Amino acid sequence: MAILLLADHDGSHLSDQTAKTLTAATKIGGDVHVLVAGAGAKAAADQAAKLSGVAKVLVAEDTSLANNLAEPLAALIVSLAGSYDTILAAATSVGKNVLPRVAALLDVVQVSEITEVVSSDTFKRPIYAGNAIQTVQTSEAKKVITVRTASFASASEGGSASVETIAAVANPGLSTFVADALSSSDRPELTSAKIIISGGRALGSAEKFKEVILPVADKLGAAVGASRAAVDAGYAPNDWQVGQTGKVVAPDLYIACGISGAIQHLAGMKDSKVIVAINKDEEAPIFQVADYGLVADLFEALPEMERAS
Amino acid sequence: MKILVTVKRVVDYNVKIRVKADGSGVELANVKMSMNPFDEISVEEALRLKEAGKADEVVVVSVGPAKAEETLRTALAMGADRAILVETEDQVEPLAVAKIVKGVAEVEQPGLIIVGKQAIDDDSNQTGQMLSALLGWAQGTFASKVEIGDGKAPESTARVTREVDGGLQTIDIKLPAVVTTDLRLNEPRYASLPNIMKAKKKPLDKKSPADFGVDTTARLKVLKTEEPEGRKAGIKVKSVAELVEKLKVEAGVL
Ligand SMILES: Cc1cc2nc3c(=O)[nH]c(=O)nc-3n(C[C@H](O)[C@H](O)[C@H](O)COP(=O)(O)OP(=O)(O)OC[C@H]3O[C@@H](n4cnc5c(N)ncnc54)[C@H](O)[C@@H]3O)c2cc1C
Ligand SMILES: Nc1ncnc2c1ncn2[C@@H]1O[C@H](COP(=O)(O)O)[C@@H](O)[C@H]1O
């Protein structure tokens, strides 16, 4: 039977996370249908149709689907579930919000944040902040799965799937959208960036974070991340948090500045290809996972790095 | 309004867990256990809502072994009024936990259920969303702010600010509802010694999954549990110049 993949998009643009989730779907095997739901979703649907490996794109457009509210989106997915034996989404804030709701409505368990497809019913997933990896097998009538996109490459373009419009279902009317406060930036997105530079508690203030981290980020074309301590203290916005309970990233280069390397932080970045740590404490645990460690004061090292690179 | 809060007993977040050599799981003997950190945030939020006059009772519930009574006593010491332990030695999956808590909610009739975003042992991030689905209620997940209007009328709503991938989203949800808590919602209080003493006398009811007609047999089969691939420490560089040189030439990432 076929696989239903919930697309991540912002109306005009399909997220790269969808292309990564598609790679996991292809490994599971079966016709992949991508569901693009929103108020204006046509542009994103056309982009999804071009991904290689997509058999069909379903577009559902309705005002109730405009802001990814969990209840109408889950109701839509459940209405389609009869034709699919696997329902997949990226483990983004949308996927994590809606898929467990779908699973419960279908009375099946969910497999969260898979990092590997072993076979069509067997998956690997990290537990305990990635300190253990479980291999789990599901025999549920419907497999409901979220995918940790940092573990999968993006599917390529070259497809030409058909795009079919489907009807939205009645809005359960349990929640209403009030406002978005989204951080806009010209920098790359954390989850698709090739280079990430992250700052920790050592930065000391939002001003210093901006003054010291951002120029290096701009010079390198890097995305910016942060530790929980930096976010809690208000030096960086919440959507920059990397870690067990923030974003999980695997760029080519991750530069951790003034971050001690708590297991919860490592959980979000230890699969990066090359890790650099800049910390003034040579005993900091971050050095145990760093390919290149520099014991230095970041307030001196980073301006120098900006000039040198 | 009554608030129901779920609390899970998990390995303390400071413990570096060890995987059993035979691949059968994680070593849990003689390991420090604590309340799941997100659940501390949930208890704190419920107490603040009560202190603000938006709620009149805070009931905490845990599904787990007899020892989970300690975790519930901690919540009582923080200030919760009553506790319910649904006792089982099984490792209960999020769907079954959600079904049990639904059963508790049908008895208790809370106006709000506060659940942690994620348990730091299984890292599932499912239970609150599943519970909300089973009850047919609204969900406000990953909350960094919760505001309740008049808080009394059943048709009232809660305004929830959510931490999402691109920043923040604010939604209104109809009560009763399920809210799941994120890190920035509040900073949980510590229980004072007198309150720890008082908590010993607060009511704690014991139930079983069968009381709610829920089968806790695992539906996912865990074939094995292994250590992740390790990462070795690399080298220390002496200067920024050396670092940039290595990144360009040796690693080829700049
Ligand atoms: C439930 C839960 C979930 C969590 N989730 C996450 C998560 O997703 N992500 C996350 O990051 N954390 C998470 N944490 C928090 C984590 O445990 C750590 O507290 C946090 O990562 C520490 O942040 P930090 O490294 O910036 O701060 P610290 O641990 O305080 O480290 C600061 C470092 O900066 C160095 N330093 C100081 N001054 C300088 C200077 N001038 N130059 C160079 N170096 C300097 C110090 O030597 C130190 O190593 C979570 C915790 C819990 C309980
Ligand atoms: N056994 C349990 N007992 C009580 N609450 C639980 C239990 N399991 C999960 N929860 C709640 O659900 C949240 C999310 O857990 P999970 O879905 O497992 O990541 C936790 O923070 C708890 O609030």
TrEMBL record, chain A:
Keyword Transport included in the entry's annotation: yes
Cofactor needs: FAD
Binding site for FAD: 201, 227-228, 241-245, 258-265, 279
Stored SMART domains: ETF
Domain Electron transfer flavoprotein alpha/beta-subunit N-terminal stretches: 3-181
Pfam family for this entry, one: ETF
Cofactor binding note of this UniProt entry: Binds 1 FAD per dimer.
Keyword Transport among record annotations: yes
GO molecular function annotation: electron transfer activity; flavin adenine dinucleotide binding
SUPFAM superfamilies per UniProt: Adenine nucleotide alpha hydrolases-like, DHS-like NAD/FAD-binding domain
GO biological process, one term: fatty acid beta-oxidation using acyl-CoA dehydrogenase
Keywords (A to Z) from UniProt: Electron transport, FAD, Flavoprotein, Nitrogen fixation, Transport
Classification via InterPro entries: DHS-like_NAD/FAD-binding_dom, ETF_a/b_N, ETF_a/FixB, ETF_alpha_N, ETF_asu_C, ETF_asu_C_CS, Rossmann-like_a/b/a_fold
Function noted in UniProt: May play a role in a redox process involved in nitrogen fixation.
Assembly and binders: FixA and FixB form a heterodimer. Heterodimer of an alpha and a beta subunit.
PANTHER family assigned: ELECTRON TRANSFER FLAVOPROTEIN ALPHA, ELECTRON TRANSFER FLAVOPROTEIN SUBUNIT ALPHA, MITOCHONDRIAL
Family note: Belongs to the ETF alpha-subunit/FixB family.
Name assigned to this protein: Electron transfer flavoprotein subunit alpha
UniProtKB/TrEMBL annotation, chain B:
Essential cofactor(s): AMP
Residues of the Electron transfer flavoprotein alpha/beta-subunit N-terminal domain: 23-216
A Pfam family assignment: ETF
InterPro entries named in the record: ET-Flavoprotein_bsu_CS (IPR000049), ETF_a/b_N (IPR014730), ETF_b (IPR012255), ETF_beta_N (IPR033948), Rossmann-like_a/b/a_fold (IPR014729)
GO BP annotations, alphabetical order: carboxylic acid catabolic process
Sorted UniProt keywords: Electron transport, Nitrogen fixation, Transport
Annotated transmembrane regions: none
Keyword match Transport: yes
Family: Belongs to the ETF beta-subunit/FixA family.
Biological role stated in the UniProt entry: May play a role in a redox process involved in nitrogen fixation. The electron transfer flavoprotein serves as a specific electron acceptor for other dehydrogenases. It transfers the electrons to the main respiratory chain via ETF-ubiquinone oxidoreductase (ETF dehydrogenase).
Subunit structure: FixA and FixB form a heterodimer.
The protein, known as: Electron transfer flavoprotein subunit beta
Organism the protein comes from: Ensifer oleiphilus
